[in-house]
């Protein structure tokens, strides 16, 4: 298969998916203006290379919360990979393993945690939304521990799923035959069955997500697992400080790919203050609009330890299943390895604040 750029994978994926599914994958909340804003924030950052450094061998490898990765790259949690391909998360896990990338499995994965683990040869983390029914969370934590997942990621930017105009217009619902198989069917039923003018996903979240949780509840979760705990969707330095106080091991600095709070700060703009606030006391992952190897370098220069990539993994999956995801990851890794060489930064630790300028 000829190498495709991520942009080509996107175009190919669009042609293969039903329009309402495409709209759900690609869409954003409210004005959808944050989709381009996230990209613009990264585009404003320019790289400043060093020269005459020995870059004959570049090593993109890192260890993140005990997970060994071929590069500082993970796949962001995304619900229902079967929307993109019948094999769903099992295919994604195979590809992530082959590339040495982390896979974060969504609580609303369409394949079982155990089947995904069986297909994975690399590290897996499990992402949770805080459902009203706490027994579901306790059971998922136990299953993740038993299946060898290496961290838990609590998404904290979604007390409910935001208004997303495309999904509302399409009356989007999770198609029959695709289910969040790791959660009781009764808890998930509102996600199915469309209603004109309303997104079933948004409706389901209002019914089943616990919007009352606070930092005290985080302590409850912290006590129930020895796995590292990650919070996803932090943008305020004050929250980063609180997270450190509550024993959180890493933060995913993210505006949820422009799908939650409309006009929320792009992650790349929020990151510097958060780096200052945590002062090295927890790991930081930049999420949103990562599309090039150079974006990984920019994130590291800003002070992140790694990045998450979201939609491009689903483009690869829609294009050609596991092979497509593996190729998307390979394109990003090859680009990053080249950026390391051209930046004069043969190790991940060589990227620092002097490697970027804002313009
Ligand atoms: C189709 C889709 C489903 C998503 N599902 C989840 C989810 O279940 N949990 C979660 O924390 N974030 C979810 N996200 C957000 C991603 O984890 C990530 O923050 C975002 O996609 C990153 O932006 P990018 O797509 O520009 O890389 C989802 C995103 C998409 C596109
Ligand atoms: O679409 C999303 O971004 C998301 O987080 C989600 C939440 C609930 C169900 C499906 C996806």
From TrEMBL:
Glyoxylate binds at residues 129, 164, 256, 259. It holds the Pfam family FMN_dh. Residues 1-359 form the FMN hydroxy acid dehydrogenase domain. CDD domains: alpha_hydroxyacid_oxid_FMN. Keywords: Flavoprotein, FMN, Oxidoreductase. The keyword Electron transport does not apply. InterPro entries: Aldolase_TIM, Alpha-hydoxy_acid_DH_FMN, FMN-dep_DH, FMN_HAD, FMN_hydac_DH_AS. GO terms for molecular function: FMN binding; L-lactate dehydrogenase (cytochrome) activity. It is an enzyme of class 1 (oxidoreductase). This is L-lactate dehydrogenase.
